[in-house]
Design a protein that fits this description.
heterodimer, A: mainly alpha, MetI-like fold, 3 domains, 18 helices, B: mainly alpha
């Protein structure tokens, strides 16, 4: 909140540069956030105080009319359903007949029912594939390429590498199902290089089905992480590396004392996006495996869907959905705490700006 | 500034990455152009797209998706601009609390909404309608959009607003005639993200649309796959059609996609 106030106070400075309105785009203050603090302090104290008390003559109650449509839609289609889901979670109900109050039993089930525990365990495995591997790969590759800032064609490569992020998951699932088919390209490749014994119907294999689904997550997430870290590293001043070199720092030291701390904000964004994607996996499982073979690839979202709409276990589905929501909240807050962000706001620039203030 | 071998190495990494990223996409496109039945002649079979469009009913699915996308993006963006304007430029009682509640709402997954929403909408006879497919997505997009637009309006120039006011423009006119045109880049990013999320959304239409004529494109594709496992060429043609609109928008406005996600657009 302190930050927010400061932002408001310093606003007049930037208006003197006369171009913020058009150059600053969304997300509040990426690069301009930094420029703002470097401002020469043109705003006089009186001016600042006047701004702080709000725009002059602004009819305040009007604001309620402006937020009314958004708040109404939000309340009816997010707030209310969430409360209703919480209510449902306390009952046993098959979706048609009468319901029975069961207290917190459905929540207890989430952690004791082997099938639900299995789904949660699978979600943890998927976090490894969706988040840990892409973030590590993205960091390493971006770091090795970092010195090449003006590479011709880099923009084109970035567009291609980022592409998996925008393709509908259902399409992604269909493409990869084809790759994993018994006579599909992956097995063809393995046979061609003499690894016939490794070739198998990947999605029908009890051991390999889950990693196969996970690998698709890796494919989707790696480009995002790579592009994120590349952008973050491009902002590191070169002088830092030159100074480090003079101090005799090797590549390893360089990475851990300069590069890594500088992209902590990007790391937070990357982890948030990829971990949430892992926890919310649904489309892929629905299209590729339907949870099988057996229950080997079932995940929380898929269990929620099946229980609520196929098995007539609405209460259990609601409880699991709430646990999933809580997990997403916790992950987001935790990751952003580590990344040093105040809220889920556009992070890196804001933190960079705060660092400037601290000096 | 960097050595030749390093440069070669860098390009090697980039090419490897790009190939892996593109391969599944190209695989689908090439499958879509292959003969559908064994014994068909070689060459490129563009007819598969026509077959998928008519026989596969992808024309109808795409139509539904367009309607849904227009409604969701249209409503969500207007509501978001209005709410963001209020949160970003006006001070009023409860603004902090309301804003942070909306911020939390961004994180609520659809899974936690659809269970209750389906049964409650069913009891008022609203399942299997556009309302049931569109409105939950409007709410989700509004949560993000409000947050996004507030950030823009906070950074927008006060002097411009005051100049507009001196010229006799009211708050409404200032918003739509001055601030919105000036904020086109921020708004474009928002629209593009909302469009992508809506077009690709699967769970909400899956739960809410029980009849075939309300199936969105990804949903139609998933059902098509379930029915015709053998017809891979038609399936791939359908998959290509479903992915095409997003990919086209992405190719033209890729900066906005990347920036939006880089700046932490969590959904």
């Amino acid at each position: 909140m302190i930050i927010a106030e400061k932002e408001r106070v310093t606003l007049p400075q930037e208006t003197h540069s006369g171009r913020t309105g058009t150059s600053d785009e969304g997300g509040g203050g990426s690069s301009t956030g930094i420029r703002r603090r470097r401002g020469t302090g043109a705003g006089s104290p009186e001016r600042t105080r006047r701004r702080r008390s709000g725009p002059p003559g602004e009819p305040r109650n009007l604001a309620y009319l402006y937020i009314l449509p958004a708040v109404a839609v939000f309340a009816v289609f997010i707030g209310l359903p969430l409360i209703r889901t919480a209510t449902f979670s306390l009952y046993e109900w098959d979706g048609l007949g009468s319901s029975t109050w069961v207290g917190l039993a459905n929540f207890q089930d989430v952690f004791t029912d082997p099938q639900l525990r299995g789904a949660l365990t699978h979600a943890l495995v998927l976090i490894g594939f969706y988040a840990v591997v892409p973030v590590t790969l993205g960091l390493l590759l971006a770091a090795t390429m970092m010195r090449a800032r003006q590479m011709p064609g880099l923009a084109l490569f970035r567009v291609l590498i980022f592409l998996p992020q925008v393709v509908p998951m259902v399409v992604v699932g269909i493409a990869w199902r084809q790759i994993y088919q018994p006579e599909g390209p992956l097995n063809d490749l393995l046979r061609a290089v003499g690894l016939e014994s490794v070739a198998r119907p990947w999605l029908g294999d009890y051991t390999w089905a889950l990693p196969s689904v996970g690998l698709v997550g890796t494919w989707v997430g790696t480009g995002l992480c790579f592009v994120l870290f590349l952008a973050g590293m491009a902002k590191i001043p070169r002088e830092l590396y030159e100074a480090a070199k003079l101090d005799g720092a090797g590549a390893f030291r360089e990475f851990f004392s300069i590069t890594f701390p500088a992209v902590r904000g990007e790391l937070a964004v990357a982890l948030t996006l990829t971990v949430i994607a892992a926890l919310k996996t649904f489309d892929l499982v629905y299209v590729m495996t339907s949870g099988g073979p057996g229950k080997e690839t079932t995940v929380p979202s898929f269990e929620v869907y099946q229980r609520a709409f196929e098995f007539g276990q609405v209460g259990s589905a609601a409880a699991l959905a709430l646990v999933l929501t809580a997990m997403i909240f916790i992950v987001t807050l935790l990751v952003n705490r580590i990344g040093g962000r105040d809220d889920a706001a556009p992070g890196p620039a804001r933190r960079a700006a705060r660092k400037q203030e601290g000096r | 500034m960097i050595s030749r071998s390093e440069r070669v190495f860098n390009y090697a990494i980039l090419i490897a990455f790009a190939t892996i990223a593109l391969y599944p996409v190209l695989l689908i496109v090439s499958t879509a152009l292959s003969p559908d039945q064994i014994g068909d002649s070689g060459g490129l079979h563009f007819g598969n797209f026509a077959d998928a469009w008519d026989q596969g009913r992808f024309g109808s699915y795409m139509g539904t998706s367009v309607t849904v996308a227009v409604l969701v993006v249209g409503m969500a963006s207007i509501f978001s601009v209005m709410a963001g304007y209020a949160f970003g430029t006006m001070r009023f009682r409860g603004s902090e609390v309301i804003f942070y509640v909306i911020l939390l709402g961004i994180m609520v997954p659809a899974e936690a909404l659809v269970v209750a929403l389906y049964f409650d909408l069913r009891s008022v006879g609203l399942t299997n309608t556009l309302v049931a497919i569109v409105m939950p997505q409007v709410a989700q997009s509004v949560a993000f959009g409000t947050f996004w637009m507030r950030a823009y309006f906070r950074s927008s120039s006060r002097e411009v607003v005051e100049a507009a006011r001196l010229d006799g423009a009211g708050h409404w006119r200032t918003l739509w005639r001055v601030l919105v045109p000036m904020g086109r880049p921020a708004i474009t990013t928002m629209l593009v993200l909302m469009f992508m999320w809506t077009w690709n959304e699967f769970l909400i239409p899956l739960v809410m649309a029980t009849s075939e004529n309300l199936r969105t494109a990804p949903l139609g594709l998933a059902f098509f796959q379930g029915q015709y496992t053998a017809g891979t060429a038609l399936l791939a043609a359908g998959a290509t059609l479903v992915a095409l609109p997003v990919i086209i928008v992405y190719l033209f406005l890729q900066r906005h996609f990347i920036r939006g996600m880089v700046e932490g657009a969590v959904k």
